[in-house]
Design brief:
Layout: H1 8-19, H2 22-31, H3 38-58, E1 66-70, H4 76-83, E2 87-92, H5 95-107, E3 114-118, E4 128-133, H6 142-154, E5 156-166, H7 169-178, E6 192-193, H8 195-205, E7 207-217, E8 220-229
Parallel strand pairs: 1-2, 1-4, 2-3, 4-5, 5-6
Antiparallel strand pairs: 5-8, 7-8
Helix pairs in contact: 6-8
The chain binds S-adenosylmethionine.
């Protein structure tokens, strides 16, 4: 998809519908404690490794700091933050995800420390000590990525910690081949971001890379980034 054909509203509509249906089933089971196939199990484990690293990076903040979890999913990281004493705002485009995150927060007794909202990473507002956005921007092509990242970085004077899929020739080829399979057999498309596109998005948002770490665990591959203002 060329960047000029990116339609932000259509894209959000597609994501909202996917993550309220088929995507909810898929991700809620990966982020829950259902028994999984060995492939999906590596995704669960890799995601846990990623969250541990991000949690370490947040340790610089005072314990009562405010953190925005943008695209919170079933609330795994939000609940962990709340348990550690942070004040959390959790937003997700999919109401089904927000409902699940709320139910989990109540179950674990931290609902008072989390404010939930059905909203998008492009529209959420407020001011936070840090912003996290995990495995959400991987669903955005470069242009949409830059727009959303710009909003997220305007919400904090501190770090924006996020994951993305760096461009990789072999994966690009696999995705291209994958395009020829019938739709029902396809997974959510992971959108890879080229280095120059990332640098442009960072520059436009006035951000620089503070730390970065490649997480590769079975079928879970991502780049975890910690960006701060210049
Ligand atoms: C793969 S899940 C990751 C969930 C969570 N961040 C985690 O790592 O446990 C992606 C989540 O992003 C949400 N999402 C996708 N596009 C979004 C958008 N534009 N604004 C807010 N949430 C979005 C989906 O509904 C879904 O819950």
């Amino acid at each position: 998809m060329s960047s000029s054909s990116f339609n932000a509203e259509e894209h959000k509509k597609m994501l909202r519908s996917y993550f309220n249906g088929q995507g909810f089933q898929r991700w809620a089971s990966i982020y829950g404690d259902d028994k999984l196939s060995s492939v999906r199990n590596t995704v669960r484990q890799g995601h846990a490794v990623m969250m541990d690293k991000a949690f370490d990076w947040l340790q610089e903040l005072p314990k009562n700091a405010t953190v925005l979890d943008a695209g919170c999913g079933t609330g795994l990281f939000s609940i962990r933050l709340a348990k550690a004493g942070y004040k959390v705002k959790s937003v997700d485009i999919a109401s089904q995800m927000v409902e699940k995150a709320k139910t989990e927060a109540i179950k674990q007794g931290v609902q008072k420390k989390i404010e939930f909202e059905v909203n998008t990473i492009e529209s959420v507002s407020g001011a936070y000590d840090a912003v996290v956005c995990f495995d959400v921007l991987i669903h955005y092509p470069a242009e949409g990525f830059a727009q959303a990242f710009r909003n997220l970085s305007s919400l904090t004077k501190g770090s924006v910690i996020f994951t993305y899929a760096p461009y990789n020739k072999i994966l690009a080829f696999q995705h291209w081949i994958g395009g020829y399979f019938p739709k029902k057999e396809r997974r959510t498309t992971i959108q890879m971001i080229r280095d120059e596109e990332m640098q442009k998005a960072m520059a436009t948002a006035g951000m620089k890379v503070k730390n970065r770490e490649k997480i590769s665990w079975g079928f879970y591959h991502t780049m975890l980034m910690n960006a701060s203002h210049k």
